Amino acid sequence: MESTSSGVCAFALNDECDRIPEILARSWVNNYRLEGIFGRETSKHKIKGRVTLKADYDHVTRHRLEKLVARVQSEYRRAAFHAAEVDIQSEEAFELARKGMPRAKLPGAQIIYGCEVKHFNLPYFALQVQSVGETDVFLRCFIHEIGVSLGTTASCVRLQRRSLGPFHAGHALLEKQISLQNIIRNMELCRRIMKNLPEDEKVINENSSPYEEDRLVVDGLNMQTDQEYDAMRPVWPRNYT
């Protein structure tokens, strides 16, 4: 993820780094909250980029946005079957749809499986997006295309990853919780989650909740918190003159 984005990230240590390609090949469905603003376009669609264009947006309504989102989601779902090289009219497609969604055979295929309007208050709006193979650039451009398709423009003002496949915010360590003991406990939790993942080479599961450990397991980690942690401390050094 880029420095202007936030959310759940996965890290590997030592020999486990060799498993990163294997993990990426699982094509996990990741969950994002994307917040955008209509009527404003930035340089290269960056969150903190220079504003390069302004446009009217008064004609945009929640109903129009929801209709567009539904159409885009339908088109991407159809594209998922093409990326998996499956005839959408075949019995194989029916069986795959019954189990979940087909796994793309093309590595790095960027597909949106779900999109829902979570907030609308002109000029601001927020979407919940479930996607595979995405990048920050892809998601920011997606927000821009939403605006263009509605006869205006738009830019992303916040990008937050709520889950990375089976890993959710409840499984993550905050900066104030990072210590050797907590890292070891978190590694054990991640191993349990990975061990319990179902394996189906042709199907990906959009609902990652069955993969989660019981809440008792997560709470049982008893993460320690640095009581002197300064939540307002920036990542860059303070210089006062």
From TrEMBL:
Native source organism of the sequence: Ancylostoma ceylanicum
Name of the encoding gene: Acey_s0455.g1749
Matching Pfam families: TruB_N
Q: Name one GO molecular function term.
A: RNA binding
Per the record, the GO terms for biological process are: pseudouridine synthesis; RNA processing
Know the name of this protein? Pseudouridine synthase II N-terminal domain-containing protein
Query: What Gene3D superfamilies does UniProt report for this protein, alphabetically?
Result: Pseudouridine synthase
Where is the Pseudouridine synthase II N-terminal domain positioned along the sequence? 6-132
Q: Which family does it belong to?
A: Belongs to the pseudouridine synthase TruB family.
- In the record, which residues are listed under signal peptide? none
